[in-house]
Amino acid sequence: MSNHELKHAYGQRLEAVMKILYDHDPDGIGRSIDTPADEYRDLATRLLPRLWAARTASAAGQEICKLFPSAEQTLIDALWAVRQRLV
């Protein structure tokens, strides 16, 4: 992959993860209080490499729960689905 392609792929992944986190709002800093859509950018940036390094849904769930201890299964499933879709 070229540098441009890598940046594009990273941007797509980051946007998708940020949207899921914002919509599910595990820390109560997103949709539930109507904050800007990029409120989860820092946490999504931290989660992204961990999520993409995970080879199984279980491993991904463990990484997600490290950042979001109260993560519900619907959030874990949504993040794993985007991980699978945006390989």
SSE blueprint:
Blueprint (H helix, E strand, L loop, with lengths): L2 H22 L16 H13 L3 H11 L5 H13 L2
Helix pairs in contact: 1-2, 1-4, 2-3, 3-4
Mind explaining what this structure looks like?
There is one protein chain. The longest helix is centred in the N-terminal third of the chain and has 22 residues, at 3-24. The protein has one domain (3-85). The chain has helices at 3-24, 41-53, 57-67, 73-85. It is 68% helix and 0% strand. The protein is mostly helical and 87 residues long. The two termini are 13 Å apart.
Quickly count the domains: 1
Report how far apart the termini are. Answer: 13 Å
Q: How many β-strand runs?
A: 0
The protein's oligomeric status is: single chain
- The topology string of helices and strands comes to HHHH
Strand content: under 5%
Round the mean pLDDT to the nearest integer and report it: 94
Approximately how much helix is present in the residues? 55-70%
Structural class by secondary-structure content: mainly alpha
Output the radius of gyration.
13 Å
- Tell me, briefly, the overall form: globular
Q: Which spans have pLDDT < 50 for at least 5 consecutive residues?
A: none
The main sheet comes to: none
How many helices in DSSP terms? Answer: 4
